[in-house]
Amino acid sequence: MQGLDEALAAAWRLIVTADTALVEIVALSLKVSLTAVFCAAVVGLPLGAVLALVRFPGRGPVIVVIDALMGLPPVVAGLFVYLLLSRAGPLGPYGLLFTPTAMVIAQTLLVIPIIAALTRQVVTDLWAEYCEQLTSLGAGRLRAVPTLLWDARFSLVTAILAGLGRAMAEVGAILVVGGNIDGVTRTMTTAIALETSKGDLPLALGLGIVLLVIVLVINAAAHLFGATARRAAG
């Protein structure tokens, strides 16, 4: 095993020279996580808005379940997706297990509750503020969904970025359903775990530095959009 100074120097060289293996791993991680967050936003934004505005039997338990799923252990989500995609599972014939698609499905399941729960809270607050005005204009609760989502766009971007941060840092679920196959399903987090166990610190440190930078950028963007939302709200 290399010394820490040597490993750090080698890690920086991998980053500066855009090492092929490192770039491929980072690119796959971004592709999987961004796709998963997009799918989660398509489901989570309207779901959260509907839960905020529409009253229906069982609404309370549904909200409790979604809030609880925000803390869902990733390996449990991975196990659930594995059972769905395995040969004996209902989606087994499609051969999706140990592919990037399986990883996207697992991350989507993890991110949907985050986006839905945060969206529900934001839309609930907006409805309490604008309900009389919207009702006077003839907009019922369901018809108000697009208007409120647009009005809350900066806050909702923050929610989406929170989901992206969760997806980028996730390792358990994608390891279960992706298998950490070199060149196919190896992401930054799974590669860091593998390379560290092998004692290959330069690649692990290089990926760790890149992941840290990405997470810092995501958090900075979330802070910026949050500040924009607060200014827009007056």
Summarize the structure.
With 234 residues, this protein is mostly helical.
| Helix content range | over 70%
Number of discrete helical segments? 10
Work out the number of β strands.
0
Distance between the termini: 56 Å
The general outline is globular
Characterize the structure shown.
This protein is mostly helical. The chain is 78% helix and 0% strand. It has ten helices and no strands. The protein has helices at 4-16, 20-53, 59-69, 74-85, 100-136, 144-151, 153-169, 172-178, 188-198, 201-232. The longest helix has 37 residues, at 100-136. The chain is globular and about 70 Å long. It starts with a helix and ends with a helix. The model has no long low-confidence stretch (mean pLDDT 88).
Question: Topology of this structure?
Answer:
Layout: H1 4-16, H2 20-53, H3 59-69, H4 74-85, H5 100-136, H6 144-151, H7 153-169, H8 172-178, H9 188-198, H10 201-232
Helix pairs in contact: 1-10, 2-5, 2-7, 3-5, 4-5, 4-8, 5-6, 5-7, 5-8, 7-10, 9-10
Write a concise keyword list for the protein shown above:
globular; 10 helices; 234 residues; single chain; mainly alpha
